[in-house]
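ENCODED BACKBONE
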Amino acid sequence: MKYKLYPSLLLLLFCTTGAFAQEQTDSTDQKKAAEGSVSISFGKYPKKRDNIYVSSGLAGMLSFADMKQNGEHMRNIPRFSFIFNYHVNFNKDFTRHFGAFTGVDFKNIGLISKPTDSLKLKQRVYTLGVPLGVKIGDVTGGTFFFFGGELDLAFNYKEKQFVDGKKVHKFNEWFSDRTPLIMPSLFAGLRVHGFGLKVQYYPQNFFNRDFSSGSGANKVYPYRNTDANLVFVTFGYNFNGVKYFKVPKKRHYMRMKSGKAQIEVNY
C-alpha cells in the first residue's frame, strides 16, 4: 500500500517546487518590469508671487458698541452696513506661508443708541483707513490667518434722530469735530479661498467729549459724559486685482520615470 503512495507524493512535491519557482520568477519579472517601465505624471506648480500684487474686496459689517452715559451702560442696537465698505490691499508674500499687506479701506462705521425709551440715535462716519498687517498660512490663495492695526481718517459725520419711531431730525458734517479725526484700531481674522471673517476693535472713544455747540450761556457739550467703543465683525470676499508680480515661467510640469532615471519637462 505504501508503495502505491510514492507516485502521489512525488507528484505533490513536483507541483510545490514548480509553484515556488514560478512565484520567484514572477517576482523577479515584476521587479525587472518595474525597473524598465516608464511612468508619466503631470502637475501644476503652486502660485508664487515674487513682487507686490493688488487685491480688493467688498464687505458687510456688523457693529457693536460698549456705551456708557455718566458711567451707566446705555442701551444700543447692533448695526449692519454693507454700502460703501470697500478695500484695496497691496500684498507682499515673502514665502508661501508668510506675507504682509497694507492698502486703503473705505468704511461706513457707526452705532445706534437709545438714550431713552422714546429717543433713538443713528450716528455714523465715513472713513478712509490705512491698514498694516501680516498673513500666516497658505497665503497663495488658500486658508490663512491675518492680524494687524489700522488708522482711519473720519471725513464725514451723519446723525439721525428718531422720536417714537419717527425721524425728526438729521444732518451731516464734513470733517466734523463730533468724533476724533484719526481713529486707531486693531484687527484679526481668517480668510478661506477669498472669503474672510474679521474682528476689528476701536479702543478710542467714538465721540469727542470736548465738542461743544452754541455759545455763551447756551454752550453745551453733548458728548461730555458719553463713552462708546466700537467692535466690528466683518464678512467679506476678496477679489484678485491687477497683478503687479512676475509669473514664474515654470507653471506646469511633466515627469517621466524609467527605473532610477527621471526626466522633468516644464512648460
